[in-house]
Structure prediction request, 464 residues.
Amino acid sequence: MSQALPLSPLGTVTATLGRALPVLPVVAVIALLGLPVTPGGEGGATAADAVSGLVVLCCAVRLLRGRRRPLSRTAAVVIGLPVVGIAVAAAGAASAGAGITGLARYLQVFVLVPAAVLLLVRDRRDFRLLAWSFVGLALWQGAIGMHQFVTGTGASYQGEDIRAVGTFGASDIMGMATVVAFGLVCAVGLALGSGGARQRTAAVVCSLVLLLPLAVSFSRGAWIATVAALGAQLVLAGLRRAVKVGAVVAATAVILVGGFGFGSAMLQERISSITQVADAPDQSVTDRYTMWAAAVDMWREHPLTGVGLKGFPEHRDGHASLALSSGSDTAGAGAAFRKQPLLSPHNMYLLVLSEQGLIGLLALAGSWLALLACALRGLVRARRAPSGNGAPPGLDCALVACGLLGWQLTDFMYADIGGPSTVLTAVCLGLVGWWALVDPASSALRSQAGPVPVAGPLEEASAR
Prediction:
């Protein structure tokens, strides 16, 4: 019986690329967010947005060629539930243009791209490839951000151009923080999971490195969401491991901030400001409270359907108090000083409540909660699976999925969609959806939809 000859290095690369071909468009979406944002192009479509449309098209072509039913009934309901509120709010928009624009954006972020990613990911190796892509993008943006902090070429913060914003510019100060936080959550999930020793070691190193750019982003919302997500990952991975990793992180923080004085004064001041949101809030917190109150007031006038998609800016002045400033000051990172208008409440739940009403909020939040419940159920099943190397197979995927969704749901209390990094939210929801609704360790839903291609026994063994 003849034995297969070993592949040459070029053949190995070609085979690897061929196997990963279905998810390469998704990798391209992530990679394109490493490009600089065009000055003056804030709020418009980016190259990553365009390629996300290509991802949806690739998925549609694969479904047509395979002639199979794409989703189970339950998965279709969970992924498609937001369409109800989005469609109702689009019909109630102030203008047809605003309705169509808002409809396209919400469908892209919360329905179409997540569904496409869910269907293009075939097994845990694809999942891990996308998770490492997040880590790679975070390292790239974090390196640029650290350079900005050290050289004083970042966005303006307390009169100094030291705020790390990566390639997103001063107009999107949350962009780099979001990317780095996603990468950190993925790295921690991979480090705590069931991969090989080399993968776990690399993930630990990446996790520690990414703490630095996240710190100098000075983004309080990203800090809170990251602490919540990482804490949840550690607890879900096991209390004993949580204590060990927590000790390492705490020691690293003490060395960097206490020992070397790495940005200690500004970081301590920024951290302490988190606890002053009620007693002595700064102007940015006051603006946020004012816009939150305006969003609630809009909802009270239109409790079921809201004021319509893209309606918050138009109705803001009629519901906001005089405490609201004219806009936030932005400067640095290659951009001149400008006043950036406050066009959203910086709270996704209140934005949906004001523009889509109770119908939209219940549909969208219901979809997210269903994903969270299914993802946690899958994590429990993964932990019960037989273990060969100290950690159950698939535990890393489970921790990444739960961490990403936990981070996003927490961050939505301080932020909403907008900016180039928004497309990453869609990819995250797709990854979470695959783990929660497709992976065999997390769900038995595929039996309702016919066969779904997964890795065979040998492939799955190597994918663990």
Summary: Residues 70-279+342-463 form one domain. The radius of gyration is 22 Å. The mean pLDDT is 83.
